[in-house]
Specification:
- The protein contains 17 helices and eleven strands.
- It is α+β, with helices and mostly antiparallel strands.
- Helix 9 (142-152) runs antiparallel to helix 13 (227-257), helix 11 (179-205) packs across helix 12 (211-217) and helix 13 packs across helix 15.
Length: 398
Amino acid sequence: MSTAELLNLQDPQQVLNPYGIYAQLRESGELLWSERYQQWLAPTHATANATLRAKSLGRIFSPVLPESEWEVFNWLHSDSILDSEPPKHTRLRALVQKAFTPGRIEALRPNIIRTCSELLDGAEEKRNSVGHFDVLADYAEPLPVLIIADLLGVPRSMAEDLRRWSQDIVKMYEFDRTREQELAAQASGKAFSEYISEIAAERKKTPQADLITALVEVEELGEKLNEHELIAMCVLLLNAGHEASVNGFGNGMVALFNHPDQLALLAANPRELSVTALEEMLRYDSPLHLFERTATSDTQIGAISVKSGQKVGALLGSANRDGSVFAGPDTFDITRVQNPHIAFGAGIHFCIGAPLARLEMLTSLPMLFERFPELALAGEPVQRPTFVLRGWESIPAS
């Protein structure tokens, strides 16, 4: 059996903890061909980074069949900046960046602080009532949904729908999805697109100070976003922003609880260590473990020639544990300074929502420990049985 075949995502234990297999995959230092998944695997920092940056490797979206059944889901992806390549990607990114500006993101800071405080009030009340609260359900998970709702100009009363739609859609990215999950993704994609379409139509008539209005109005060299592109961008912001923030925060919190010395260090210095702690949380147990690209022409990655049409899967979780780049790669060190992780990707598909995700997490992390300086686990965390988007379902704390 070749080394690549060691990765078997039908093995629940591997999905829960793939890091031992990752170490074996990295040993050759090169891409590895997986017969099981019919693609190259890029397990090292060098190969994964090269995969993300190679201009001849693209995000080539393959429509889900039958296309009539998946019509909305398919265009939500084919018209998304994430699944586009130049020149379409260049046009979309230029338009979106004119609306999704650093200033617009920074202006969210007071709202993020206020929302964190409100959520912590609720968590504290729950802890005082029943003895514990859920770091995810009561804090980390609602925060990005509420902030993205405010950013888009969607009423907060829709937050539960937004969260459910997002969770349904992203299950399509996993290898072992069920028919029930596929039907839920179809329904949620349709409901989300119809809802955003209605709001966009309203904003054309009555502009507001929100991102949907900005996306409706943005123009670059005579180009504007069409309706599908605008809706796809809003869906991507919710899905990517929500999943990155929640899973990055949740994975990091479990790592902290599993390393009491680091937990105590952060609790004693939440403001001083929040930046390095956050980056280590993202590196140590990354929220995204696989990002696939397809060769549009023969491409050289290290010593391996990838043929046109072949897929390459960048294993980001493995790359971020590469000992040739990170000292003590399996050590969780919240004071780590040299930390060139690629948890948010690299190249033209570097996560457009990364600045917002970082702002949310850099605000919410110290505020959590300032409110609960003696924070401790109140039960066993429950892990999600997913590989591509790695995270937890519940983290009880007191």
